[in-house]
Amino acid sequence: MTAAFLIVLQDICLPDVKANVSVYGAIPVKLQHAKNNLARVVCQSQGRTNARPRLCSLHWLPVRQRVTYKVAFLTHKVRTTATPTNLSELVQTHAPTRALHSYDVPLLVVSRIHTELARRTFSIAAPSTWNSLPADIRLCKNILTLKHHLKTHLFKLT
User: Domain map of the chain by residue range?
Assistant: First the structure.
């Protein structure tokens, strides 16, 4: 199977998590099961085999890391291009009051929250996700470099 066919198959069979940013906090286990089953079908595995090696061979991130990838990528886009404007208003760069050695690495302001539901909003999820990334990923200017380093970093976490 070609790479383009596999991408189309994954996009058709699995719901697109970027459609609703508020979903990011509550990732259903059923979605991961569906992705595992899809990987087994694409790799033509027999029975109930471990899906993790199949996901890796297809270069598919697990659902939780895929959501992190989408949020981080969208945050980078918002920071570099200020589009979409409705999201760029929600992301603010942290400006420390004193000169710090870590000032070279851009951090975002994470607002205080009082509910678990608020943690799922883009204004909280984006800065939290962005600040949790290593400095070399946050400093990427080129979008292709960011994608490569981000996906590599997330694969290492699985």
Answer: 3-157
Closest CA to 70 of 6, 126, 8: 126
pTM for the full predicted model: 0.73
Mean residue pLDDT of the chain comes to: 76
Quote the pLDDT of residue 144.
Answer: 92
Question: What DSSP line would sit under 108-138, residue for residue?
Answer: B-----SSTTGGGSHHHHHHHHHHHS-HHHH
Kindly report the backbone phi and psi dihedral angles of residue 102, in degrees, each rounded to the nearest multiple of 5, phi listed first: -80, 5
Identify how many contiguous H helices and E strands the chain contains and give both numbers.
Answer: 8, 0
Residues 6+ apart with CB under 8 A from 27: 17, 63, 64, 67
First to last CA, the chain: 25
- State the Cα–Cα distance between residues 156 and 134, nearest whole angstrom: 12
